[in-house]
From TrEMBL:
Belongs to the EMC2 family. One of its GO terms (cellular component) is EMC complex. Keywords: Endoplasmic reticulum, Membrane, Repeat, TPR repeat. Component of the ER membrane protein complex (EMC). Part of the endoplasmic reticulum membrane protein complex (EMC) that enables the energy-independent insertion into endoplasmic reticulum membranes of newly synthesized membrane proteins. It comes from the Eukaryota. Gene3D superfamilies: Tetratricopeptide repeat domain. This is ER membrane protein complex subunit 2. Residues 26-135 form the EMC2 TPR-like domain. It holds the Pfam family TPR_EMC2. It comes from Salix udensis. It is a peripheral membrane protein. The lineage of its organism: Eukaryota, Viridiplantae, Streptophyta, Embryophyta, Tracheophyta. It is found in: Endoplasmic reticulum membrane.
Length: 228
């Protein structure tokens, strides 16, 4: 099916049907074959039938999400994922998929909630802290920017100072906070020091790995009014 050799896939499924006529796993393969053919309605009926027999089949639930997503129905995918997560709340991949769909629809507050759930369940995964910080930075506003800066800092800490995106995030947040507050934000006393450390780390990284791009980095710092 992945190679679009659907005739061969059909032959394989037919052999499996004869060998295991009552198998639910074979039933899933039949539905997936319909999905691969683009027979969306028939595939949906097949998945719904399988869920009637076993409402806790995680694979079938996820196939339904993939089915509506393949048709461009992102709101349908959101509905299915939310219903799925009501039962399978510990499924990290589902939370992440839901967050990415929300981001594609510019529903950033909902995406932030998804990443908060992920960070609660897996607090040592830097990717989730980084994604959460990106979402908060995109939302904007002093409070969100301050929180984003904290989560960029956590990402840097969890990666041993090696996450380039988080280092840039520190510089962007600090610059945006300075522009919005114009020096009035007394709670953000550590920003200049943190910004200097981040920009110095970026400069060192660029000198070692991409020296030909160092001039572009310097120009970016000037635009953001960042001093290394």
């Amino acid at each position: 099916m992945d190679c679009q050799s659907l005739d061969v896939a059909k032959d394989c499924v037919n052999v499996l049907q004869k060998k295991f006529p009552e198998s639910k796993r074979v039933g899933r393969l039949e539905a997936m074959l319909l999905e691969a053919k683009g027979s969306w309605g028939e595939a949906e009926k097949a998945y719904s039938s399988l869920l009637e027999d076993n409402p806790f089949d995680q694979v079938v639930h996820k196939r339904r999400v993939a089915l509506v997503k393949a048709q461009g129905n992102l709101s349908g995918a959101i509905d299915f994922l939310n219903k799925y997560l009501e039962t399978f709340m510990a499924d990290h991949d589902a939370w992440r998929e839901l967050a990415e769909i929300y981001i594609s629809l510019q529903m950033y507050k909902q995406a932030a909630f998804c990443y908060e759930e992920l960070m609660l369940s897996q607090p040592t995964v830097p990717l989730y802290h980084l994604a959460y910080a990106d979402v908060l930075y995109t939302l904007g506003g002093i409070e969100n920017l301050l929180t984003a800066k904290k989560y960029y800092s956590i990402t840097i800490d969890l990666t041993g100072g090696k996450n380039t995106r988080a280092l840039f995030g520190i510089c962007l947040c600090t610059s945006a906070i300075a522009q919005l507050s114009k020096g009035r934000n007394k709670e953000d006393k550590d920003s200049p020091d943190l910004q200097s450390l981040a920009s110095a780390a970026l400069e060192k990284e660029y000198k070692q790995r991409a020296s030909d791009k160092l001039s572009a980095l310097t120009l970016a710092f000037k635009t953001l009014k960042v001093s290394s």
